[in-house]
Write a structure and sequence with these properties.
heterodimer; A: 160 residues; two-stranded antiparallel sheet; 70% helix; B: 23 helices; disordered C terminus
């Protein structure tokens, strides 16, 4: 999914301008001539400059570089399904993991994602993979490295 | 000598050895998977090393990288899909040899060359680093400022296919590094009143997102062009492999030397080393016409070269705190997390630790022989794991890893945002390595810059006041000016040619020629 350089350039020019203006509001220490905004401002100038170059290049090339070009993969609905499935399961994990606990959430996330990537015909092996991976991750992070992964229903059974 | 003994004592412990062995297996597996580059492998490994002692953590990273760089040859030779950019230079050639039935032998050859290259690179690292560190002890913030500039500029301007895009990527990283409380004035910056942002943005979740999450998205949305053919079990003819190595011993020497030198440059790493060595082997060959038809000469040179470079990239990182590539950028981040500020002082204050890194590189290269041998035997099974299974697992691993750093969901959000942004950046040919580099050295760069400015009352000439600083400053400015001159020259050429659609030179996203 390629956009014309002028578009990405404009986005970064805008971010650069915003950062430059916002850096002016940082509280400075009295008596020190160079405040905390100086370095971010220099970086913002650099970003804006890069954006300007891209806008210039993109506009000059607009005849043969379309505003939006969809490559082979971006014309297949399956690619969008994959993309939003990945983003979706991560969001799902963020929202429910604290409630359901790691083991249940992780199993659900993996089963869902594997069913999407491999198709429903191979469901049994997908479930098996999901459970094995969840167990291994729990073993590695929670039991060995002592990371306090979200505690929930299944963890309660295991402990109790 | 005492430090060396102390280093041996640090490394030869049961836990450290166990960690190295684990990192070996992980590195081989990750390297053999075409979707997982050495950088992604390290990004996945860092959350685990986060909980280890510094020696074990660094040994794990060093080992995993050395393994992964070799393992990238496996799918390259057997399936013609390089597992790693560093293997791309000779994947075609190695595949030709597989078609002739010499797949196992060529992999064995490249394994032994990798080991030898690794040894040369490690020797260079072990001998040059302490010596350079002594020299670097005289440096002040001006020198460090310029060194950081050189490291960042080469990454953003020289290695990127489009310097403007490299510059933007770098500036994103530098801005991200400023989020949180300012070190000098204590003022909150870019926090927008959020408590989470006041702590600053942790670089590990960003790195996990930018490299690993983006790779999951990329590889699932870009399905492989065809069903992967199955790799077949390959016969290994050890005698033939040794004979090849003996015949092309000069190439091993040259490849390792070039790899070491290129690796030590900031902004260039094993993939460039491998391309250059392959090209030079062809140039100096008595039979250049055989290249491309399954001829081992170039493979010997390039596979020793890329492993030599993996060790020597640590030179600028350890000595100056300026990373040579994205892997060592991550290493520097890890060092900071462990409370060790990389730079010449580490060699004085923590010499055994630094030497233990050298020792672990040696051990890693020794382990590479048996582990690599087993990997070649098992390659046909190893390469059968499809991306549709692997990538969901990697995604879940990134979730847990990003969470584990601060035990907060914030890490997962950062990794997700980083992954999506990085995915779109890479789609539009923005390099992402400068972003991570900028984020890691940003703080150091700003500190040295501000200290220099405040100490000299804003006198910019002070940045050129000392001989070494002036030299480094001039080099930096040359790096900045070069793309401008190149652009001006292109512009003039286009004017003379009346600038038609075909006049703009197109470069591919990787910035170097692709195999196949």
């Amino acid at each position: 999914m390629k956009v014309n350089d002028a578009i990405s350039g404009a986005i970064f020019l805008a971010i650069g301008i915003f950062a430059f203006v916002h850096a002016g509001t940082f509280r400075t220490m009295p008596g020190v001539p160079f405040g905390p905004g100086l370095f971010p401002r220099l970086v913002a100038v650099m970003m804006g400059l890069g954006g300007l170059i891209l806008i210039f290049n993109g506009l000059r090339a607009v005849r043969y570089q379309p505003w939006l070009r969809l490559e082979e993969w971006a014309r297949q609905p399956r690619s969008y399904l994959m993309f939003f499935a990945c983003v979706g399961v991560v969001l799902f994990y963020i929202v429910v993991a604290e409630e359901l606990g790691f083991i249940l959430t992780s199993s659900l996330v993996l089963i869902a994602l594997l069913l999407i990537t491999r198709g429903t015909s191979r469901a049994p092996s997908s479930v098996l993979i999901a459970l094995t991976v969840t167990a291994s991750l729990h073993l590695l992070f929670a039991d060995t490295l002592r990371v306090p992964l979200p505690f929930g229903l299944v963890e309660g059974w295991l402990v109790g | 000598m005492e430090t060396l003994l102390a280093a041996f004592d640090l490394v030869f412990r049961f836990e450290v050895m166990l960690v190295i062995l684990g990192a070996c297996v992980f590195g081989i597996f990750a390297g053999a998977m075409p979707g997982i580059s050495a950088t992604v492998a390290v990004a996945l490994l860092v959350p685990v090393t986060f909980f280890m002692e510094p020696v074990a953590a660094l040994a794990a990273i060093a080992t995993a990288v050395a393994m992964a760089i070799f393992a990238g040859d496996l799918p390259g030779a057997l399936l013609r899909i390089p597992g790693m950019p560093a293997s791309a230079a000779y994947a075609e050639e190695a595949h030709e040899m597989t078609l002739k039935g010499q797949g196992g032998t060529v992999l064995m050859t490249s394994l032994l060359c990798s080991v030898m290259g690794g040894f040369v690179g490690t020797m260079a690292l072990a001998f040059s680093a302490p010596w350079l560190a002594e020299f670097a002890l005289q440096f002040q913030f001006f020198e460090y400022f310029w060194l950081a500039c050189i490291g960042l500029s080469t990454a953003a301007l020289v290695s990127a296919s489009n310097p403007a895009k490299g510059m933007i990527s770098l500036s994103i990283g530098l801005l991200l590094a400023t989020v949180g409380f300012d070190m000098i004035s204590g003022a909150p910056r870019f926090t927008f009143g959020s408590l989470h942002l006041m702590e600053g943005i942790h670089f590990i979740p960003v790195m996990i997102g930018v490299f690993a999450v983006a790779e999951v998205l990329r590889s699932l949305t870009h399905p492989a062009s065809d069903r992967r053919e199955h790799a077949h079990v390959q016969r290994i003819d050890l005698r033939a492999a040794l004979a090849t190595i003996w015949r092309y011993k000069a190439n091993i020497g040259r490849g390792s030397g070039i790899g070491t030198l290129i690796g030590a440059l900031p902004g260039a790493g094993s993939d460039i080393a491998s391309w250059v060595s392959y090209a030079l082997a062809r140039r100096f060959s008595k039979t250049p016409e055989k290249f491309g038809t399954g001829h081992p000469e170039g493979i010997v040179a390039a596979s020793s070269s890329n492993n030599a470079a993996t060790s020597s990239t640590w030179v600028p990182s350890l000595v100056f705190g300026i990373p040579g590539d994205s892997v060592t950028a991550i290493v520097i981040g890890v060092l900071f997390l462990k409370g060790l500020e990389p730079g010449p002082l580490v060699f004085v204050e923590n010499a055994p630790l630094v030497f233990s890194i050298f020792v672990s590189f040696f051990i890693a290269n020794l382990f590479l022989i048996p582990v690599g041998y087993v990997a070649i035997r098992l390659a046909s099974q190893l390469l059968r794991v499809p991306n549709t299974v692997l990538m969901p697992i990697v995604l879940l691993f990134t979730l847990v890893g990003a969470f584990a750093i601060n035990n907060s969901t914030m890490g997962i959000i950062v990794a997700l945002v980083g992954g999506v942004v990085s995915f779109f950046m890479q789609e539009n040919d923005f390099p992402v390595a400068p972003l991570i580099l900028g984020m890691v050295i940003g703080t150091l760069l700003e500190q040295n810059f501000m200290q220099g400015m405040i100490a000299k009352g804003g006198d910019l000439t002070a940045f050129f006041g000392r001989p070494i600083a002036a030299t480094l400053g001039v080099i930096t400015i040359l790096i900045w000016v070069t793309p401008l001159i190149a652009a001006a020259r292109r512009w003039r050429q286009m004017q003379t040619r009346h600038g038609g659609p075909g006049a703009m030179p197109h470069r591919n996203s990787a910035g170097n020629p692709t195999a196949g």
